[in-house]
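User: Sequence in, structure out. Go.
Assistant: Echoing your sequence, followed by the structure tokens.
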Amino acid sequence: MNDRIVKRVEFKAPISRVWRALTDYREFGQWFRVKLDSPFIPGQISRGQITYPGYEHLKWQAIVQKMEPERLFSFTWHHSLAPDADITKEPTTLVEFRLEKIPAGTLLTLTESGFENLPHDVGLEAFRRNDGGWTEQMKNIENYVAQNS
């Protein structure tokens, strides 16, 4: 099994704009399709309701790890599809968004790692599901930033 997902997208927008799309909980919610209860705060659980069609029965739970302004935003999340799963009791993976200035604007690199820490069958399915999901989400944030700059 692969142990990490890596996706990249280039934006013709300044780092500050991409950073805001990633870390403002309302903007994140628009492109990611989740209604979050409150702003992201490092060390705290972010909660909300998934609004993505077909997944509306799931709750969003992530523990914000780092927010290094205009450089790194990261969180851990679980992979249980149970509607009442508790992130404090489930194995998690780490999602990192890294920003770099490039001549055209901003390079965003998404990395999700830690699949090897999940039970084998859960890890295989989570990797498959998230690999495709992150491809779609990177298109979503790219379109969102282009339309809201």
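User: And one key feature?
Assistant: The domain at 4-23+66-147 is CATH 3.30.530.20 (Alpha-D-Glucose-1,6-Bisphosphate; Chain A, domain 4).
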